[in-house]
Design a protein that fits this description.
6-stranded mixed β-sheet; alpha+beta; 11 strands; 10 helices
Length: 411
């Protein structure tokens, strides 16, 4: 990737780009050449709750304010294929069905209803007891419902399924061809950056790499297949000088970098069904998710997301997804934002302004073979009627993340 982004001023507002992003567009039918435009998106919607089953309870009626805001945000952007991060998983898929029926299928505050005939969800590592003392404190905690339990789970969570993932699509999902990497062990990644000497031998032997899961979800678009590669790596914070979360975040991102690099780099990988290797060379894909990694600012280990942004198999758009709201927020909130290197128009999260400040952590990255066209970050400015969906940093009416979308032409 061109590193000229470093030189962008924090005061530069891409108002024209942001305006186009907020205007939105819908997928168009296939053209005479057989190409169609499809909108891929990622949204950490913060539809997670503190206790198991609470999300199902909240979604059982159509009047949960935060869920309504999340649904309206999705309706305003109108994606065709969407990853929702931080959506609590339940085995029966009840929360997903309720969100689709009670919220997305109901027009919110004047927005048009949106329907996704296809969906995919699966278990994640968050809140799943490891049975081992992973953090070296309190022994192995196996009773759900506490921070100590979360620290010893395969991925931080107070109960199994917290902070899960959900894929929604207007196009058919080839469910039989989905690959998941929930159980892949961190130690089995050659050249991993697991912190030396931090974990016990017992912990290293069972530690799963993915803090939630990594899914390859094939989506059928006309006669073409696009692999939707989705994940939610752990934040590179909430640890000590060993930087265990930063290092894990790096290698969670590296899994996709290796997966799309051909057999020489991906042959070590194995999915949850035992199938080895990565994506077949020449396959088309879109990598999406709250990757918890900004290319220039924040606490990432070794600029982790650049493993993807600079990857030769990825075709970046001429301009990253942007908003005018991100620029306004960085300027008005100050704090850590004033010292950031990255362009605030590309920010996708409204974090604590003391540290780390607002960051670009949510990404939608298409492959070669797909033509990136329009894109955006849903971050309205304070003079926009939809500003009520994002708030001013001190209040969080929906989520501390913004929905990010990228249109691609598929043929």
């Amino acid at each position: 990737m061109n590193h000229d982004h470093r030189a962008f001023s924090r005061r530069t507002a891409l108002a024209a780009v942001a305006g186009a992003a907020l205007a939105g567009s819908t997928a168009v039918p296939a053209s005479a050449t057989g190409r169609r435009t499809v909108r891929f998106a990622t949204f950490n919607a913060s539809l997670n709750r503190g206790t198991q089953g609470a999300l199902v309870t909240d979604l059982s009626t159509p009047d949960n304010a935060q869920a309504r805001n999340a649904a309206e945000t999705i309706q305003r952007v109108d994606p065709d294929v969407l990853l929702i991060n931080e959506f609590d998983f339940d085995d029966a898929g009840t929360a997903a069905r309720l969100f689709l029926r009670n919220y997305l299928a109901v027009g919110q505050s004047g927005a048009r209803p949106i329907r996704f005939p296809y969906r995919y969800t699966a278990p994640v590592n968050t809140g799943v007891a490891s049975g081992v003392d992973l953090d070296g404190r309190n022994g192995a905690v196996t009773t759900p419902g506490s921070d100590a339990y979360g620290q010893d789970a395969f991925g931080y969570g107070w109960f199994p399924g917290q902070y899960g993932m959900l894929v929604l699509s207007k196009h058919p999902i080839d469910a039989r061809a989905v690959r998941t990497f929930q159980h892949f062990l961190w130690k089995d990644m050659p050249g991993h950056v697991m912190p030396p000497g931090y974990y016990s031998d017992e912990a290293r032997a069972i530690f799963r790499l993915s803090s939630k899961s990594h899914w390859d979800v094939p989506v059928r678009i006309g006669h073409s297949t696009v692999h939707f590669l989705v994940s939610h790596p752990t934040p590179p914070t909430f640890d000590g000088p060993e930087d265990r979360n930063g290092r894990r975040n790096h290698d969670e991102i590296r899994l996709w970098a290796d997966y799309i690099s051909g057999p020489r780099r991906s042959s070590y990988l194995y999915d949850d069904k035992g199938r080895r290797g990565g994506l077949r060379p020449g396959s088309r894909f879109v990598i999406a998710g709250d990757l918890n990694a900004d290319p220039y600012d924040g606490d990432s280990y070794d600029h982790a997301v650049r493993q993807l942004l600079e990857h030769p198999a990825i075709r970046l758009p001429a301009t990253p997804p942007a908003s005018a709201g991100g620029v306004e927020a960085a300027r008005s909130q100050g704090g850590a934002n004033a010292s950031h290197v990255g362009n605030p128009a590309y920010d996708t999260s409204d974090f604590n302004d003391n540290a780390p400040g607002n960051l670009r952590v949510d990404h939608v990255l298409p492959s070669k073979g797909l033509e990136p066209v329009g894109n955006g970050v849903f971050w309205p400015t304070s003079d926009d009627p939809l500003y009520r969906l994002v708030g001013g940093g001190t209040n969080v009416p929906t989520s501390d993340h913004r929905l990010v979308w990228q249109d691609v032409r598929v043929g």
